[in-house]
Amino acid sequence: MNLVERALRQPDLRRFLTCLALASLLPAVAVAEPIASSNFAGVENPLVENGAWQPMFSMAPDHTQFQKNNGAFIDRFDGRHNNHAVARTTAAVPNDHYSEVVVGHIGNEFSYVGATVRVQTSGPAIDSLYMYWGSFANGQNNFLYRIVADGIGYSAASLVPHSAFADGDRIRLIARGPVLYGIKNGVREFIYNTGRDATRYDTGTTGILAYVPGPPETNGTIASWSTGAAPASAGTWASSNFAGVEDPLDEGDRWFPLPGYSGFRKAGGVVIGKNAGHNISGAWGIAPPQKQYSEVTLGTVASGSGGGPIVRIDRNSPDKTGWLLFLWVDNPSSSGIYKVGKDNPQDGGFTPVRFTSTPTRPKRPSPFRRT
């Protein structure tokens, strides 16, 4: 079994996979107190809570919004359009933040609730945001979404699927640098890197969202909400023996996939790429010094596969970065150090810098001919 991919069989350098791990121990990630929160106690229509909430109408053509009655839900049903209740906090929230809701009640597979991050509060993209929302298992829209709005209308792009919601689930969406990830009941559900997206939001605030297709309005209810700063990197050193099973690879907020990649899953002592192709993950929960090392132990490597450590990843880059020591089992002459980046797109963005041995290259005809 390969450290990074046992299913891969293509003997092509463009199809290798790799992973980064920095040695020693990782301190626990501290979770700060919420900046703002509400359990929606009492009765209020529309939801205001002393100016804590601002309604948003790009996704509500009939200007429906939230009310509260020991929970937050849409204030009315208007059958003319698909009306969502959407609101953002007026609290000052850093650009790296989380939004968390506890699901109060979902009445059917057509009703949804969720949390929003990086909400745009002004300008031509006002009301644009990312949302982690869901319904029952047979709901068709259980996705992380990017909403592109302009204050009047919107479009929605589904980015990555996730599992169904149930009453009482605690749903947290985190925006951290270019990375978005969703946590349900304390377990990471998905992770998505926005780095290569043509449309992306790097700043903004947080909020909540609900939708029901018809009465009763309480079929999409949020029991409570909180927001705060995203967890910060803790410590400069980390290590892992990848014990246990986890999909996607998380290990307490240690790992994130580089832009354009799906990352890894963990399978009892090894990590395996989620796609049959390049898979690259970086250490997310640490802030290593510039003078650093990365060390991996390869498992059983299939023909055509390989892997290795990476150093000097720029976690805020819109593209993959770093320096890779790639070990290619059945083509050792191409093993060596590669520059990871988009400057060599014909080779998948991996530029050879130095081979561990002199590569064997096919003879090519001379570009010069005698006449």
Tell me what you see in this structure.
With 371 residues, the chain is mostly beta strands. The protein contains no helices and 26 strands. The chain has strands at residues 36-38, 43-44, 53-55, 66-69, 72-74, 84-89, 97-106, 112-119, 129-134, 143-149, 154-161, 170-176, 179-184, 187-193, 205-211, 220-229, 245-246, 255-257, 264-267, 271-273, 281-283, 306-307, 310-311, 322-328, 336-340, 350-355. The chain starts with 35 loop residues before the first strand and ends in a 16-residue tail after the last strand.
For the sheet with most strands, the description reads: 7 strands, antiparallel
Enumerate the strands of the largest sheet in spatial order, edge to edge or round the barrel: 3-6-15-8-9-10-11
Number of strand elements: 26
Which radius of gyration do the C-alpha atoms yield? Answer: 24 Å
Written as H for each helix and E for each strand, in order along the chain, the element string is: EEEEEEEEEEEEEEEEEEEEEEEEEE
Please report the distance between the alpha carbons of the first and last residues.
56 Å
Helix content: under 10%
Question: What structural class do helix, strand and pairing data support?
Answer: mainly beta
Coarse shape = elongated
Strand content: 35-45%
Uncertain residue segments? 1-30, 359-371
Give the rounded overall mean pLDDT: 84
Q: Number of DSSP helices?
A: 0
